[in-house]
Each structure stands twice: as C-alpha cells, then as structure tokens.
Amino acid sequence: MPFLKIWIHTVWTTKYRVPFLSNEIRQTVFAHIKKNAKEKDIYIDFINGYTDHVHCLIGLKPQH
Length: 64
Description:
single chain; 3-stranded antiparallel beta sheet; elongated
C-alpha cells in the first residue's frame, strides 16, 4: 500500500522586513493561521516567528 507524506515549510515576512509583529500581534497571527488550518483539515507541526517573519511547518494530505 502506498504511503505519502507532504511537508511544506512556509515563511511569511512583513513588507520590507519592517519589525511589525510584536508578541501580541504575532500570537494573533498564529491563532489565525491555526484556525484556518483546522477548518481546512491541515496539520500544523510547528509555527513560530519573530518581529519580521513567521515560519510554519505544515503536513498536507494527498487530497490537498
């Protein structure tokens, strides 16, 4: 039986790398990403970032 894993590492940055994402805003962005992933049945393995970017490691199913 075939087994398929799809892992994608995404990085989003602020425009011109402006340090806009304070801790409070970053947590709001993380919550938004997690909510949308849950609605679309996408597994988030890891999410983190800093004041100018967000990293996310997601696992997709073949139907995505």
